[in-house]
Design goal:
The longest helix has about 40 residues, at about 1-40. The protein starts with a helix and ends in a 5-residue tail after the last helix. The protein is built from 10 helices and no strands. The mean pLDDT is about 90. The chain folds into 2 domains: about 1-65, Arc Repressor Mutant, subunit A (Orthogonal Bundle); about 65-218, Tetracycline Repressor, domain 2, CATH 1.10.357.10. The protein has helices at about 1-40, 45-50, 55-65, 65-80, 90-100, 100-130, 135-160, 170-180, 185-195, 200-215.
């Protein structure tokens, strides 16, 4: 009997966890669509709950209030999963660290960045319009930008360790160049305003970074 009880508890726990995950995913899908369609101000929590087919109280219990929900959407867009994932645990970061060649490191990052920005840049456009309405959103984005800068310094250090970073560039200068070109603003300028294909931007970034940052012979 005790073994059966333990198995039932484990089953019930797994079922509850799976149910909570499914609820959270439904909320995120509905929120993403409504934020992009209506903007931050027009996206109400009751509308998101109705679209997800979930009680409003459950939405609040699962993801918090609207600023927290939007922040969660941004984080999951960055990580490419249904939960926020620290940069060091992402597959492309591990691939960059394992790759000995500087040019290939940059190519891996450019490919990953294209996928990130395809998810993130539309949300950033919503954020640009919403930040004046909610100071917490501006602070959230400032924090993400600072985190991006720290991550780019780590990438710059990876490039320097290969011995092929241009001697005229410091690690910090390299990080700043990468940071300026990996932003959602840069993506939106070229892809939305100038009509570039995301794949063309990926190739351009990879090649441009190699020309700007690396010695000609690797």
């Amino acid at each position: 009997m005790p073994q059966k009880t333990a198995l039932k508890r484990a089953y019930d726990s797994t079922s509850r966890r799976e149910g909570a995950d499914a609820t959270r995913q439904a909320i995120l899908r509905a929120a993403q669509a409504i934020f992009l369609e209506r903007g931050y101000a027009g996206a109400t929590m009751p509308a998101i709950a109705e679209s997800a087919g979930i009680a409003l109280d459950t939405v609040y219990a699962s993801v918090g209030k609207k600023p927290a929900l939007f922040a969660l959407l941004v984080e999951t867009a960055i990580s490419g999963t249904d939960v926020a994932v620290p940069a060091v645990e992402r597959d492309y970061v591990r691939a960059i660290r394992a790759e000995p060649r500087a040019a290939r490191k940059l190519a891996i990052y450019a490919a990953a960045l294209r996928k990130i920005q395809e998810r993130l840049a539309p949300l950033f456009r919503v954020l640009q319009q919403a930040a004046p309405l909610d100071p917490s959103l501006g602070e959230m984005w400032k924090s993400i930008a600072e985190r991006r800068a720290k991550n780019m310094k780590l990438l710059a250090q990876e490039l320097a360790a290969t011995g092929h970073l241009k001697r005229s560039l410091s690690v910090q200068m390299t990080a700043d160049i990468l940071w300026s070109m990996n932003s959602p603003e840069y993506y939106l300028l070229l892809v939305e305003q100038r009509g570039w294909k995301p794949e063309a931007l990926e190739q351009w970034l990879s090649e441009a970074w190699c020309r700007l940052l690396l010695e000609t012979a690797e």
